[in-house]
Specification:
about 190 residues, mainly alpha, about 85% helix, elongated, binds fe (ii) ion
Length: about 190
């Protein structure tokens, strides 16, 4: 119940924070992904209320200090990287930290509900867990497909300029950049 209250507070904070994060994103696909997850997050609040009911418990929230901290860091990232080509990669990183916290929490909650033989609660928690995992995967894909490349954009131009004298093929630079992006996305 304590962990449920923690996540109930976390989801409610995210409902308020995700529109701000979407506004800070300059990549249209990232904006859309964040707003799609906002809809799911609103659903998570409702599902958690149903989980409390499935345990015949009163719905309650308890300040989730981790989410408070992660969102504070997200706000700072949005401010620090405003106008930078790295803004979207930085926002993906902030959002994925939230998703991983949620995945850990819902993984535990789902197991515990199963141990307590509450199938209804376990089912609801598994649905939320699957949506958090899917949201995290979409963020990884977006990072690999565009955000990380965009972040490397400026430095790549500089690298290519300095390599002109060596007549290094630009293709190789792109491959190296792609590799770096893949590492960043993990
Ligand atoms: Fe959620």
């Amino acid at each position: 119940m304590d962990e449920l209250a923690d996540m109930y507070d976390a989801e409610k904070r995210l409902v308020k924070a995700l529109p701000k994060m979407a506004k800070a994103a300059t990549c249209e696909d990232l904006k859309a992904a964040i707003l799609a997850h906002l809809k799911e997050t609103e659903g998570h609040v409702t599902k958690l209320e149903q989980v409390f009911q499935a345990f015949d418990e009163k719905v309650r929230g308890k300040t989730c200090e981790a989410t408070v901290g992660l969102l504070k860091e997200g706000d700072k990232i949005a401010a620090d990287f405003k106008g930078s080509p790295a803004i979207n990669a930085a926002l993906v990183s902030a959002a994925q930290k939230v998703e991983h916290y949620e995945m850990a929490s819902y993984g535990c909650l789902h197991e515990w509900a199963g141990l307590l033989d509450n199938e209804e609660a376990a089912g609801l928690l598994l649905q939320i867990l699957e949506e958090e995992k899917a949201a995290n995967e979409s963020l990884t894909e977006l990072a690999r497909e565009s955000c990380n490349q965009q972040a490397l954009g400026d430095s790549d131009e500089n690298e290519n300029e300095s390599d002109d004298a060596n007549d290094k093929p630009a293709k190789k630079q792109s491959a190296a950049s792609r590799k770096r992006s893949a590492v960043l996305a993990k």
